[in-house]
Write a structure and sequence with these properties.
Layout (H helix, E strand, L loop, with lengths): L25 H14 L8 H39 L21 E4 L4 E4 L2 E4 L12 E15 L10 E11 L5 E6 L17 E3 L1 H10 L5 E5 L1
Parallel strand pairs: 1-8, 6-7
Antiparallel strand pairs: 1-2, 2-3, 4-5, 4-8, 5-6
């Protein structure tokens, strides 16, 4: 054994961490042991009743959060549907328009005695039916317009007297369902305003017939007076 008192102690000769030197006084050793025990102490377990109360509280909070989220989703869906239906506006729908009280005034008036047709303030000459084939009088309605139409005497019960194609034809219908026509007298341009030479139709000069054709529309009323 060496008697060199100045050498450094070896590793196995040094005291372990946390363990006091055997030479340490008893009071200091006791204090160190108490400190060491306190640093590694585990928390005391909770009572069973307290654990259950905390679990119940957690479940209630979770259910409340889920219910709140569902309520928000339903409210958002309802708002979206309402916005889609009313265009995103709270404006009230417009009330229905009041029905018109205006009476249907004649769109055109034909005066057979004066041989004139008056429309939109303009007066044009006409030729009407002869004594043997007079033009019917009364209120008639425009039911159709024909750029060119074939007219035959058979269609009005006159046999095979005529079969012609005429332009600018306005078809009329009387209360009795019988048809009549306003048309261009291309075969007798000089007759309107001068003599009556049709088989009951209301004949106009070609230029006047085209103008009347453009002015009248289906549903318009034409009044024919004797």
């Amino acid at each position: 054994m060496s008697d060199d008192l100045t050498r450094e102690p070896s590793a196995h000769e040094m005291p372990a961490p946390g363990v006091s030197d055997p030479e340490m006084p008893a009071p200091e050793l006791s204090a160190s042991l108490r400190s060491l025990a306190g640093s590694g102490a585990a928390p005391a377990p909770m009572a069973g009743a307290q654990v259950r109360r905390r679990a119940v509280a957690r479940r209630r909070r979770r259910h409340a959060a889920l219910a709140g989220g569902a309520a928000v989703a339903v409210a958002a869906l309802a708002f979206g549907l309402t916005s889609a239906l009313d265009g995103g506006s709270d404006a009230r729908p417009a009330p229905p328009a009041a029905p018109s009280t205006r009476s249907a005034a004649p769109a055109a008036t034909v005066d057979l005695g004066a041989r004139t047709l008056t429309l939109e303030g303009r007066r044009v000459p006409v030729s009407s039916g002869s004594t043997a084939h007079p033009t019917r009088t009364g209120r008639m309605t425009v039911v159709a317009k024909h750029r060119v139409k074939r007219l035959t005497s058979e269609s009005v019960g006159l046999g095979d007297e005529y079969d012609v194609k005429l332009p600018w034809v306005v078809e009329l219908r009387g209360p009795d369902g019988r048809a009549n026509f306003i048309l261009a007298m291309t075969y007798a341009e000089g007759a309107p305003g001068v003599r009556d030479s049709t088989r009951g139709a209301i004949g106009l000069r070609s230029a006047d017939a085209r103008w009347v054709y453009e002015q009248l529309s289906p549903g318009a009323v034409v009044t024919v007076r004797g």
